[in-house]
Recover the amino acids of this structure.
């Protein structure tokens, strides 16, 4: 088995993968919070050459990117030679959406001889098979809202926007943008009452043709709490393509809040 490095962002996913692969090298980045222990090796985005050299010296041949990372401020004066050479390509990619930037990041690691793995490849139990995980079978208005939500996400995919959308009684109440899921659900929660009938659906799915090795859509217990606070009654995810963190806790939280959680083959 090739040695694996986990490139860690914030959230619970890096630790989950570390538990699944106890032999993995743990890498964090300056300025990016993480919940891993003291064995984590910290590197800098400005010095990618040093990172590549360190990984190769430790026999790493595979990498997985896990956890949330915002676009970091970069100091050109601190760039090493490798980062200086990469900068023009990164600057162009950063003008686009997240998918364009992440595809370039994958390409850069592959050019260095690394194989990039998805979190779901390291731990297949992270995703959900098609079916009803919690609550009632999708039907009626919820079924129509879910269909409408997937239509919206599919339409936005070519623009590299959004992995989540809220639809209630056929009306789109919000679309996930760069600010993320929490911002979307908070926006919906604060929508004027005259626009709401309550009981809508939060739909989460990757963009069409998205490379699932990076930025795979994710929900967790906090997502369920935010969905409940937004007055929604159903979460619909794409089966096999959305990470469900702390699945037992998600199921418990959804049951407690009276929220249905359903995975669909799309």
């Amino acid at each position: 088995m090739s040695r694996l490095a986990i490139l860690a962002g914030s959230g619970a996913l890096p630790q989950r993968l570390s538990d699944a692969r106890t032999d993995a090298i743990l890498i964090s980045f300056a300025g990016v919070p993480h919940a891993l222990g003291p064995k984590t090796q910290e590197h800098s985005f400005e010095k990618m050459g040093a990172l590549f050299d360190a990984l190769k010296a430790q026999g790493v041949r595979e990498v997985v990117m896990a956890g949330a990372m915002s676009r970091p401020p970069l100091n050109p004066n601190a760039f090493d030679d490798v980062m200086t050479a990469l900068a023009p390509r990164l600057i162009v990619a950063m003008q686009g959406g997240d998918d364009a930037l992440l595809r370039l990041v994958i390409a850069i690691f592959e050019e260095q001889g690394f194989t990039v793995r998805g979190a779901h490849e390291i731990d297949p139990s992270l995703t959900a098979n098609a079916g009803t995980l919690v609550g009632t079978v999708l039907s009626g208005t919820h079924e129509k809202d879910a269909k409408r939500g997937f239509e919206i996400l599919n339409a936005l995919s070519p623009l590299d926007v959004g992995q989540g959308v809220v639809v209630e009684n056929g009306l789109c109440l919000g679309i996930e943008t760069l600010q993320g899921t929490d911002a979307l659900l908070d926006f919906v929660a604060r929508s004027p009452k005259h626009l709401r009938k309550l009981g809508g659906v939060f739909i989460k799915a990757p963009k069409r043709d998205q490379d699932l090795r990076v930025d795979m859509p994710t929900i967790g217990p906090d997502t369920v709490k935010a969905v409940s606070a937004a007055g929604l009654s159903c979460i619909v995810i794409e089966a096999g393509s959305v990470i469900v963190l702390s699945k037992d806790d998600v199921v418990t939280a959804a049951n407690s809040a009276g929220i249905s959680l359903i995975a669909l083959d799309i």
About this structure: The mean pLDDT is 92. The domain at 3-122 is CATH 3.40.50.20 (Rossmann fold). The radius of gyration is 19 Å. The chain has nine helices and 13 strands.
